[in-house]
Amino acid sequence: MDKKALTESDIRSKFIDPAIIGKGWTEDMIRREYYFTDGRVLFDGSHHDRKEGKKADYLLFRKPNMPIAVVEAKDNNKPVGGGMQQAMDYAQILDIPFAYSSNGDGFKEHDFLTSQEQDLSMDEFPTPEELLERWKKHKNFTPEQQKIVDQPFYSDPYSYEPRYYQAIAVNKTIEAIAQGENRVLIVMATGTGKTITAFQIIHRLRASGLKKKILYLADRNILIDQTMVQDFKPFKKVMTKVQGANIDSAYEVFMALYHQLVASEEDKEDPFKQVKPDFFDLIIVDECHRGSAKDDSAWRKVLEYFSAATQIGMTATPKAETGANNLDYFGAPVYTYSLLQGIQDGFLAPYRVTNSFINIDLQGFTPEEGEKDLHDKLIDQKFYERKDFGRDIAFVKRREIVAHRITKMLNQIGRMTKTIIFCSDIEEAEAMRSLLVNMNADLCQKDSRYVMRITGDDNVGKKQLDNFIDVDEPYPTIVTTSELLATGVDCKTCGLIVIDKEIGSMTEFKQIIGRGTRLRPDKGKWHLEILDFRNATAKFKDPKFDGDPEPPSGGHGKQYPKPEENDGGAGEPSPHEKYIVNGENIRINTEIVSVLDEDGKTMRTESVTDFTKKQIRKRFATLQDFIRNWSAVERKRVIVDELKECNVLIDAVREKNPALAHADIFDIICHVAYDQPPLTRRERANNVKKRNYFAKYEGKAREVLEALLEKYADYGILNLEDENILDYAPFNQFGKPQKIVKLFGGIAKFEQALKELELEIYKEAA
Questions:
Q1: Is 635 left (phi over 0), alpha (psi -120 to 50) or beta?
Q2: pLDDT band at 551 (very low <50, low <70, confident <90, very high)
Q3: Percentage of the chain exceeding pLDDT 90
Q4: Other CB atoms within 10 A of residue 115 CB
Q5: How far apart, in whole angstroms, are the C-alpha atoms of residue 219 and residue 224?
Q6: 565/501 Cα distance (integer angstroms)
Q7: What pTM, to 2 d.p., does this model score?
C-alpha cells in the first residue's frame, strides 16, 4: 500500500480509526467530522449563503457534551503535526484540554494543561482512562466535586443537543460552583440561549443533590412565562410561578418577578421574608445588567437577604460603568460568548445599517422670538439639538419624513417584515403609529394590527406582544415603542429595527440590537436591517461594543450614584412638557449604508463591486493567475466556494449590475476584478456551435451534448456540473442516465466528453 497515494479520508479509516478504537474509545465517545458551528451567513441584496462551518475531524468525549480531545487528520504527504495548529485552534474554541494531529504515521499531542507537546507512535494514542486521569489530576477535584462535575446534561427525545458554547458555559459554571464559588457571571449575547443554559445548570445541580431549592428571577412577566413553557418545561412538576406574593414551599423551582418579592409600600413586610434566608440555595438572576445588581435598587435586597445562596448572573451586557456594575457584584465572567462571535459562527444574524441623517438633526433648531407651537404654547427661547427632538420638542414634518423612510424600506425588504421602531417616548410612539397606519392603509385594512403601539401604558398593545413574537403570527407586523421592547422580548423573526431615540448607554444599545440578532432561515430571516436616524450605530465602532468586559472596579458593597435615566426597570420615560412644531424644509440630507466587514468587527461602506474586486484580487493576483486556477479545478464550484470563504457572493454582484444578468460566473469575475469585457452564456454557447465542435459526435450522443450546451446557456456552469443533471428534462427523453452514458461508451468517456465541452466553452480564455 502506497500511503502517499491515499486520501485524507483513507488515512482516517485505515490508520487513525483503528489506532483510536484500539485504545478503548468506543463509538459513543467519538464524533467524526463534527460541525460545531453553522458557518457565517453572507448576504447582499436578496442573496444569502453560508461559509462552511468549523468541523473537527474527531472529537473524543469523556461524557456526552463534555469533550476531552480533538484530533485533526492530514494525508500522508503532510507531516505528522500538519494539523496541529488547526487542532489547537479548535481545542481553544471548544475548551478542550488535549489536541492531536496525525498523518497516519503517528500522532503529535499538545497538552493545554501543561503546554507541552510530544510525538506518539500510532499505537501510543492515550486511552480514555489515561486522558481522564491527567485531566482530573490537573483539576484536583475532591470525590464530592467530581460527582457534581460528572453529572450528565438533561436529554430526552424532544430536547436539542447544546451548542458548543452553551455546553462550555454550563460546564464552567458547574465546575466553579462545585469548587465553592458562590457568585458566578455568565455573559452570552442576546439570542444565544441563556435560558436553555440556565436550565441545564439547574438540572445538573439538582440531579447531583447539591442544590434543592432554586429561585429564577426576572423583571418582566414575559421573561418568566416564555421560560416556563419553553426551556424549563421539563421542570413542570416541581416548578411554580410566584403569584400574589405567595411562596409555596412545596415546590423546588420558583419563577418570580423581582417586584413580586418586594413590598410595594415601605410600611409593609417584603414577601420574600416569608421564608428563611437559607430557604433558597441557588438563585439565577436573568438579565442581571438591569436594576438587580445596583446597590441602591429595592430589588438588590432580595439577593442580599438570600446571600448564603449561590447566585448566578446572566447577561448579554456586562457593565463596567459608574453605577450598576454587575462585574463588582458577581465577579469576572466565568464564560463570555459575544454577539460578533455568534455572527462569525453563523448562529446569529449579521446586520446591515442604514444611517439616515436629517438636516434639522445636523443643524439644530432655534425658535423665533415669541414663536408658539401648534398648541399655542410659547416656545422656550433656546437652541434645541437632536437629543432634544422627540423629548422636549417635536416636528410634525420630521415625524412624517421618518415614517416615509420606514415605509420605503419595508417596500424594499418586504412589507411583512417584523419591525420594531424605538421612539423617544410614548407620545412619539403613538404619533409614529398613526402616521404608519395612514401610509400603509392597504395592509391595515387587511388587518388593523399591521401597525401597533406596544408601550407600558397601553394594555391593548401589550396583549398583542405574544402575537408579535410568535414566528407563525403575521400580526402585529410593525410595532412602535419607547422602552418596553428594548430588552428580554424574544422576537426571532424581527428583521428591521428602527432607531429614532437617543441612546445614552452601551448597555441599552446592545439590548436594542439584540432584539433582531436571531436567525430564522426557515422563516426567511437571514439578516437584520437597522435604520438609524440618531447615529446610535456609531457605537458599533466603540471598542467596548463587543470587547471583553472591563475588570471589576472595587469590592462588594461599593456605593454608586443614582442610576442613569432609562437604564433598567420596565417603565417608559416619564411624560413632561413638549412643544409640537410643524417644521419647514425638513429632509433627509444623506444616507450611508454599511455592513459588518470580513474581520467581524468594523463596518464596511464600500460598494459590493469594489469589495468583490478587492477580495478576488487577494485570492488571484492577476487575470492569468485566475484563468490558470479556473482551468485546473475539476469543478468550478470549488472556485465559487473559495470566493465565498472570502465573503464574495457572485449572485449578489450579478444582481447589482444588470449588464451581468446573463453573464457566466467566469465572465463576472473577469469583468469585475480585471476589467475584461463580459460575454453572456448564450454568446459562449454560440461560439462553441460556430467552431462545429459537435461534428465529432453522431446521433443521440450529439443531441445529448447539444442539450447540455443549452442547459449551460440557460442556467450556467454550476448547473452543467450537477452530478444528477441526466435525471432531469430534457435528458430523461434519451432514457435513464445509465443508458445515456452508454451512448458515449461508458461513464469515463461521458465524463471526458463533458470535460471537453467545458474546455470549448472557455476556449478563447485559455
A1: beta
A2: very low
A3: 62
A4: 7
A5: 8
A6: 13
A7: 0.83
